[in-house]
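Annual report, structural modelling task.

Input specification for the fructose -6-phosphate complex:
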Amino acid sequence: MCGIIGYISGKSQKENIEVLIEGLKALEYRGYDSAGLVSISNENLIYKKSLGQVKNLEADVNKILNSSPVFGEGDYSIGIAHTRWATHGVPSELNSHPHTDCNENIFVIHNGIIENYKELKNILEKGGHIFKSQTDTEVIPHLLEKFLKENNNNSNKFDLSFLETLKIIKGAFAIAVIFKELPEMIYVAKLSSPLVIGIGENENYIASDPSALIGNTKKVIYLKDGEYAKVSKNNVNIFNFQSQSVEGEIKKEITELEWDIERAQKGDYPDFMMKEICEASEVLKKALMGRIKIDQNNPGNSFIKLGGLESIEEELKSAKRIIILGCGTSYYAGMVAEYLFKKVSKIPTEVFLASEFRYREEVFVPDTIVIAISQSGETADTIAAIKKCHDNNLTVIGIVNVVGSTISRITDSGVYNHAGPEIGVASTKAFISQLSVLALVSLYIAQIKNKSFDKNLISELNNLGDKMDAILKEENISKIKSFAEKYSNKKDFLYLGRNFNYPVALEGALKLKEISYIHAEGYAGGEMKHGPLAMIDENFPTFAIATRNKKDNVIQDKLFSNLEEIKARKGEILCIATEGDENINHITNDLIYIPETLEELEPLLVIIPMQLFAYYVGKAKNLDVDKPRNLAKSVTVE
Ligand code: F6R
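The model returned the following structure:
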């Protein structure tokens, strides 16, 4: 939540601001209530905050640039910028960042929550500090102002004041600070909120997320919790602010980002959401690349190779239980994995919402392996749940998309998704990627534990991309679009699925809620008669997953009975069914066919029409599908 970008170079102020605005646009998925920036170049200071999306800030700043002299290359130009997702205080210009001290000499942007801000604000107000906003962040510039005054005679006053402030604030933060008096330096610090430093030549960057740096630099340094840095045009100096002893500078490794600019741009697509849905087969390919070894002559000898899990192979071999953790879409991917792990790997598995798991009493048993799933790798609840597992000596595997993110670094081993940046706030391609990786993990565990499983799963997984592309053919997309338009005026929707497709019904309902603001509930088909059936009438349609496969059609028969019950109550039905299945025609009002696959892998196909449906309902309602209201991509606060 909230996006942070900073840039320091010897370039002009206009270029400095361009980098900040482009960075904010890339980060807008983290928050888009309001945005602001400060940029200083050869004593010319531009400070602007605007309500709404980054384009409003861009327009406002362009007006300033056009009406003021633009400075050419100088010794430096420095700036920090922020896009906000409101936690404390309504979205407004006053509450947006950067925040300042009383005299606008210190500029601060912040992602996270300062938990003790009320008591700090009280003390500061008693000391004469005047606050302009309702935010928790504003205590930071005022604390810096106070400590600067107290350290005024010390040659090291900026470092000292920054350190004293860091030691007094409690909570979660990634912060960046510019002192007007010291305009060749950005001070940054991190505790429980992500922060990355981008390394350039004669220029450096800071950001809350590496996606803001794509196209500028691929070299990054990830700050750890408790670290702060002084970033100038040519140097980055990193220290620890938590250790009791005064430690020297910390030497950090530079990581190379693997994402390229094309993957973070919309290209010819109207929105990121559409682009990301259409990347399904590519995402599957990237997840499987180098991990499936097919023996063409004898498919029975095909096997899975997961380099990231080799270091814990012995632990996995002796594992007796698996715990899966995640939030939102990642949790639903975990629910599908529970079915997979039980059926394919034959290991007891439980899946938990990370936000519940972190606070509930849990019975930890030896030989348990934890799998934490997170696209961003920064979700606060998932991080806290992982810490709880570590406190109980459990080994944690991460399934993470963002390379170098917090979860990828705190887990004991892991498998990256390699899905590329997901910019649309609602998760689409990440879900496909998570399901692909989890299918691999289930096969890998079965393989190392010598459990018998259907070897066709490996080859079918490998071939699923063509089936995904078939679903995404133009004629199918237009059909789904027309259904979406037909149902877009509904106020409620029920999503039904059973077995492997039950979590997919939950995920389908979540997509509709997020993108179209229509109330949607996901249910297991068998639960209909235990309550939800009471809601059904001609205004309450149902989206049902009624696929069939060769192995077992009991589930489909049961679901048909559930649908008959809905039809008898005049409920409209939209179904996803398996190509060639005509039994469904008499029950459903509208029908979307998908190619047949093994039931274990059906979620990977079924979710695509559901994502498209939510997308087109959102479009029919003229909504911003990439940036649903009230949401942010990385949920780095509780
Ligand atoms: C839904 C969505 C969220 C995320 C959830 C977890 O479309 O995007 O529900 O899935 O916030 O995020 P990650 O996977 O980054 O931990």
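The chain has three domains: 3-257, 263-469, 473-638.
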